[in-house]
Amino acid sequence: MVLGRMKTLMSTPAGLDAIVDLALRDPIARSRQILGPNAERLWLKRADDRPQRFKWKIERLRHEFDSELRGLHTLTDAGMPVPDLLSEGPSHFVVSDAGISLAQLLVRLEAVPGKRTTAFRAAGAALGRLHRSGFALGRPTIGNICWDGDEARFTEVGRLSSGQSSGRKTAFDLIVFVHSFMTKTGRAGPDLDWAMRAYRTAAPEKTWANLQAAARWIAPLSYLAAALGWLGAKYPELRAVPKTVAYLRMALAA
To answer: Distance between CA atoms of 36 and 18, rounded to whole angstroms?
Structure first.
């Protein structure tokens, strides 16, 4: 354990240290699933300290690890929904499994729309509360938000901004969320609508004004995406840009 961080580190389950020690003998994988003492799914995250050809790459990989761990501590201290931090060392940490991602929900539970609706509403509300608390995630895609049946949790926090993040950053978070949905599905849908409604209820009042400004900034990108339409089949992210802009305009007008 790293001293000075006991505030956010959950009690290490009995037997976990031995499991982690054994897993750390394996070749380095930046993220891998392990089974806990009660056969529960956990995730072992490691700093990639292997020799690299370029020094800047070593520094970047270490920075990514440190940023992720720092983000977990910060959001846990603030009461934000992230995976539980169960064990920590100089170059590794272990977190609880956060469930199924929203992106996977769209594929695996299409026959149960009620569950999807609940998960997306929870995700929108959680993102709104996070913004109201002065944070911005940087990349809250539907693949980086998971649903465990009770709570939506943020699983990618390495790009966290704190200290009353700017309106531009929070607006960008929301744009990223909508764009990731459009990339995955190719169209808007009730799940996204519910997430946006829940977000607007929980987010700071100024957020909608910030989003209006951000929508104007990205509007020219829709024309660029249309001009490069022949790349759309290969790059669904590009094809999703004009749909994202159109959806945001509709949501802002509502």
So the answer is: 10
* Mean pLDDT, rounded, for 236-248: 87
- 22: its two tokens: 């054994």
Mean residue pLDDT across the chain? 86
**Secondary structure letter of residue 228 according to DSSP:** T
DSSP string, 66-130: HHHHHHHHHHHHTT-----EEEEETTEEEEE---EEHHHHHHHTTT-HHHHHHHHHHHHHHHHHH
Q: Which two tokens stand for residue 224?
A: 């660029």
Give this prediction's pTM: 0.87
Give bridge partners of residue 45 from the DSSP assignment.
31, 93
| 93 vs 49, residue with greater confidence | 93
Is the pLDDT assigned to residue 253 strictly greater than 50?
Answer: yes
From 242, 224, 148, select the one nearest 188 (Cα to Cα): 242
